Amino acid sequence: MPLLLILWMVIIPDHILFVKCDSIKGPNFAAPAVYVLGDSLVDSGNNNALPTLAKANFLPYGSNFPTGPTGRFTNGKTVADFVAEFLGLPLIPPYLSLRGFAQANQPGLNYASGSCGILPETGKYIGQCLSFGEQVDLLQLTIELELPRLYETKEKLATYLSRSLFAVSIGSNDYINNYLQPIYDTRTRFSPQSFAKHLVDTLSLQLQRLYRLGARKIFAFEIGPIGCIPSIARNIKHSGQCVEDINGWVLLFNDQLSSLLKNLSSQLPGSNFTLGRIHGLAYDIAKNPSAYGLRDTSNPCCTTWANGTSACILGLPPCPDPNKHYFWDGFHLTEAVYKVVAESCIWNSSICSPNSIKELVTV
């Protein structure tokens, strides 16, 4: 869908409604808001409003979420949800589901969109989704048209933005829904090394846009070990639990992402870019599940299409013990795994570095 049409769809109401949801309170409101950008790992319902096959607004998705299915691609909460709760904020609402007048004390917005990625063409064969660049476009509308109505001066708005957190979780689909798909010619044009560089170079331009829009505290997550997910591990011939060649490809991206964030922090005055080093953690959970209270790291908890390699089948009951499973469906993880990842990033500066999220909100 052309960007012009996407903007028409979200501008028609003229205003965006910021609502407050029930949440477990964290220690304080050191960060006034969290703005989330990414893919289905953190999508909280934007794809509900888009014409796409990539949807999760039906049971068994949301089986363990307080209000049931919301569009989150898991059984319960995502990493972004746990971060918001730690900060004492309500869960961050999806941008496309909200219409109305802006309100004070809003907790941020979630622009993430399942099946999309860093590259504008990624995932579009599944249906309409918001690429990372399109998400930044919508964030720009929020910052330039909506938020000024809540602040008396540009200085107060700038202070608000500089204290807010901007969470980025993107890139997995550029492999799953692009590089590994025969309908794209990406693998004939790019080696794994050059593709990783292409992704990071494209991401860099958008992260610099975030900075110019006023973001100062940005944490971006690595791509996890996608060679272990059922949709890949069950469809590609290999030995062992995971397709390690594909894990190696995303490590090329992660290494360059680390260097990018360090360079941006040194080059952009007042910026704090934090890397969520979650690849190694997620791989360790998959290999040593008992250390994290898990048991099954091979089978999706829900019954999926295509022998455990796709999305959950509408209405079929999930496994009775999702907190013991690593995978929720053929692509996504359970709330139990997301909680481990979130808590590690919140407290541990070796997982989220150079600052844990707890430290990031105070710098």
Describe the protein's architecture and organization:
The chain starts with a helix and ends with a helix. The chain is of the alpha/beta class. The N terminus is likely disordered. Helix 2 packs across helix 11, helix 3 runs parallel beside helix 7 and helix 7 packs parallel to helix 9. It has a five-stranded mixed sheet.
Shape: globular
What is the arithmetic mean of pLDDT? 91
The H-and-E topology, N to C, reads as: HEHHHEHHHEHHEHHEH
Unreliable segments (pLDDT under 50, ≥5 consecutive)?
1-28
Rg computed from alpha carbons, rounded to a whole number of angstroms: 19 Å
Report the sheet-strand fraction.
5-15%
Straight-line distance between termini: 40 Å
For the sheet with most strands, the description reads: 5 strands, mixed
Assembly type: single chain
SS elements, strand count: 5
Tally of alpha and pi helices: 12
The proportion of residues forming helix, as a percent range, comes to 25-40%
Report the structural category: alpha/beta
